[in-house]
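User: I've been going back and forth on whether these two constructs are worth ordering. Before I decide, could you fold them both?

Assistant: Sure. I'll take them in the order you sent them. The first construct and its structure tokens:
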Amino acid sequence: MTLTHGIAIGWLSPSLRLLGGENSPLGEPLTVSQASWVGSLVGLGSLTGNIIFGLLLDRLGRKLCMYFLAIPNMTYWILIYCAQDVTYLYAGRFLAGMSGGGCYVVLPIFIAEIADNAVRGALSSIHMMYVSMGMMIGFAMASYLSYYLMPCIIIALPVVFLLAIIGLAETPQYLLKHGRDDEAEKSFYFYKSLTPPSPADKEASKHDAAKIEFDTFRRQVLSGGITESITWRDFVNPPTLKIFGLILVLIICNQLSGSFAIFNYTSYIFAELGNSMDPNACTIIVGASQVVGLLCAVLLVDRLGRRILLLTSMLGMGLGELTIALVKSFASAEFLEQNGWLPLVLMCFVGCIASVGVIALIFIIIIEMLPAKIRSIGTSLSMATFSAFIFVALKIYPTMIADHGLAATMYMSGGMCLFGFIVLGLFLPETKGKLMTH
């Protein structure tokens, strides 16, 4: 589903050029205002998906929510194919955002609850790697395939997802929360690849290694208070308020650094920098650099930890954006023409270094910091805030570039990175190896 969501995001940039041209499939070309709404409604849809799936997560379970993730995405591709006017695109982009918002709540929690501590960071980073791969694939397909052919191909992916998750078990934490201990034990053995003790000899089974491991896990989970009713005091206490404060700083710096918006408007940035190379090819190369960065995150996050990768990424991204701002402010047109490769190299650097930490690690850090008792609701609130800032970023970045120039926009983005580097460097704890039962 994350790959499919990435493809839906990547579809936007090349398709806007077609939809805004004289040969628009809608008949009438999109206006600038309509195009900005088509882009930013993903953020509002994501906000809605965060809230809806956050409320359903502890009621219906992780697995059933995963089934529901596919429905809005499939509807999106149907609306793109059948679009007669811009309202179809508005509805479709909102539904695509809803599916993606659900993915950002359901899948990270599902992965965190079934993964071993030693590989939890890598598996969570793969989640974002598939989003970036999807964005690159979506951009390439929308650039070179027919407008009507692409939805016919991509709609098969959510169907494959639905079939692939049939054999998965519900997470043991959810089952224990709802008092379904026998099912939780079977789920625990399934995800840990352990052989269940023989039911024939009940005395021997008490001393079975797998049974002992499950009993230890069960005690840890229940000691976290997940079966108790959640009250406002679980949120309004100094340790939890500090966690939510750090999450807010992390989200603001993630989005206002341009980690999402910049790569949605890559073609515009290349045009502003006077890039002479094919903008479609350049955007695909930048997407490939993001995938390389995310692959590095997958390989390093459980070795070096979350904190060092995030801070390195934030500092490097800030310096890269400040360099782009300086080039735009002081480089002459002749210099840019003679060094046509420079904008591509700078954007690839920013894309790669941002993906190592700022893009890859936000979800796993949020989930690992939140206490087990309020993890579902806390993740939902955090992702809702995240989606709200996605909407704001997608809405203001093209306007800022048009009204104030690329240099001012990049100075702001780089400044936010440096602000995040200082604040998170001082206060963000390392969450590598933290038990998800606490």
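The second construct, handled the same way:
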Amino acid sequence: MSATLDTERFSQYFGGCPIIRVHGFTYPVKIFYLEDVLSILKSGDNSHLISDNASVPNEDSELTEEDKIALDEAINLSWSSDEFNPLLDLVSVEGGSKVHNYQHSLTGLTPLMVFAGKGRMDDVCMLLSFGVDCHLISKDGNRALEWAEQENRQEAAEIIKKHIQSLRFEFGGQQLLDKYIAAIDPEIIDVVLIEQLLRKICIDSNEEAILVFLPGWEDINRMKENLLANPFFKNSSRFVIIPLHSMVPYAVQRKVKLLDPNCKVEDFLQKTIDPPVSESVRKAASVLQEIGAFSHDEELTELGEKLGYLPVHPLTSKMLFFAILMNCLDPALTLACASNFRDPFVLPMRPNEKQKAAAARHELASLYAGQSDQLAVIAAFECWKNAKQRGLEGRFCSQYFISSSTMNMLLGMRKQLQAELIRYGFIPDDVSSYSLNVNHPGILHAVLVAGLYPMVGRMLPARLGKQIFVGAAAGSKVR
């Protein structure tokens, strides 16, 4: 478990369970560079990385059971008794790559690992000249290089290290890397490459789990769909593909941990290690009931299930559905993403600039015939997008006190959220017809109010010498 975990607290939560502390152990990490991966995958039958000049596929005949038994015995004799002749007789030029790269049935040791671990320099050089695979891993997680280092065979380790380094600058390494980079779009994650690497790991290794880190939800979703389209990964009895991200929809999250459908929300949350305040839970359930996501007995309604598909607040999801019905989707997408992200407006430090920033925000909101912060954000995004297309992004951001980085993040988030709406069938691939009323302020106001109700209010007229109040839907007043 994590080194920063409060173990005492967790122990108490689980009824005083014992705590076991294991000191001084770190998991070994091995580094593979992109050119290493390309070289490993180059010979795959279904690889899209094979260059025009790649070598012909290996036509070695499969090893028989007698061959495997003989190799196992030879590897055992070489490693345990330093009797190398049987292994040297088998590992010859005529032996072929199946023999050169053979891994012991129990230990996973290869001839190169044996000779490297025993410091047999001539034999190591011979196998390297045959083109053996230096990246094969034994059952304990070591490659030939690690075996040489572990057995303090520094000369053998240096030879293998230089050989690996040289491969990166030969045709199979550096030129393959150059050709790969020239053939792909560096802005797009190569899910095909990742898929092939995962397939090779699953075939060559007995590891039970693989964690893949990707930049964003859109890439995670694309990777998952690509894997599920591959017949190799479709076997649900062998593979379970679970996306983990803050934008994972509720329907997908339930696959990770199914809840008791008969358990009340507050009762379930009270079982957690840090239960929320009961009043907060009741208010949240009340909001879900008011918007139609929950029934009075806390059953998830059909609308609630639809709201749960999207990775945003339920009120925001409801606003998006109203926007789709009213053909006013584009500004609603901007507001939905902005509500889950930081304010795009920059707060200046100088007093005179603060007044300019407030005036700029008011000017932007007035473009949609209003004064609210939501309308200011929508207008700011549209104006920023137009300025960016004309090459005036910097000037616009400086004049209206806008954060360029925040706007670029909102642009990416909008694309991801729109992709989710398309994915679950709420809108078609061509979304142009769902934004026909974006320039109609009245429709936009209606969408915002109807979608965000009851979390709305209206500004009450200010009385002479008194503060301005906002009237909430329930009748209360707030400053």
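Notes on the second construct follow. The beta strands are 457-459, 470-472, 477-478. Confidence is low (pLDDT under 50) at residues 43-59.
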